[in-house]
Each structure stands twice: as C-alpha cells, then as structure tokens.
Amino acid sequence: MSGGGATAAISPAGISGRRLDQWLWFARLAKSRSLAARLCVAGVVTVNDVVVSKANHIVRIGDTIAVPQGTFRRTVRLLALGSRRGPPTEARLLYKETAALNRIADLDRAWIPLLSEWDEVSHR
Q1: 22 lies in a domain?
Q2: I want to staple 36 with a disulfide (CB 3.0 to 4.6 A). Which of 16, 24, 40, 76 is the partner?
Q3: What is residue 73's DSSP assignment?
C-alpha cells in the first residue's frame, strides 16, 4: 500500500473546483452539507469578498472564504479541494486561517445566528 492515500484524499487529480456547500462540509466548517447550503442561500458566506447566494458556487484553490460559525466569523484561504469528509486533522489541511476570528456582534449588532443550536434542536 502506498503512502499517498492521504494526499489523494486532500487533492483529487483532475478537479479544478468544487461546490461551495460540499467544500464547507469537507472542511468541517459546517456540521452538515444541508446546513452549508442554507448558509450559502442566506447570503452570509463570501468568496473573495463577494457574497454568495447559491450553494453550487464553484470554489478553487486560492479562494478566500468567510463563513459565520455561531457568533464568530472565520476567514480562510482554500488550500485543497478535498475528496471526502475526513477526520478533523485531514479537514484542517484543506484551508489556512487568514485572519483572527471576529465576533459577529462586533461587526453587526443586529446579527442573529442563522444556524443557532436552538434552530437545529427545534427542527429535528
């Protein structure tokens, strides 16, 4: 067995882009792919400082993605596309933090988290 399995899982050959919702799920920046899609449709995710309103937006290596997580906003640079939702150690290889976590309350006082814990529990 070759040692390239982890590399293949992180950077699949022949793929130049991946759906944003799928990448957010692979990178473990969203708990599920459907929640990642909801974030995109709500218009709270930005790619290269442009608001994304569709989950099928294609992201590529080098893109900068800003996504809310609870009361924080994470900004990351996409390093690899990934080919699966692997363990957290593998997911962290897909991106690099480009800025410190920002509290969304500091950015916008009227912000209400789209995917709060209450929302997830109440709709099961």
Answers
A1: yes
A2: 24
A3: E
Q: What DSSP designation does 34 have?
A: H
Supply the CATH number for residue 47's domain: 3.10.290.10
3-state helix, strand, coil in the chain (%, to 5): 30, 25, 45
CA distance 36 to 16: 20
As for how many domains the chain has, the answer is 1
Residue 32 lies in a domain: yes
Per-residue pLDDT reduced to its tens digit, 84-109: 999 999 999 999 998 777 777 655 55
Residue range 20-44, pLDDT digits in tens: 999 999 999 999 999 999 999 999 9
Provide the pLDDT for residue 3.
Answer: 44
In a domain, 73, yes or no: yes
And the tokens for 51?
């608001």
Mean pLDDT over each residue of the chain, to the nearest integer? 81
Q: Coil, strand or helix: which one is 94?
A: helix
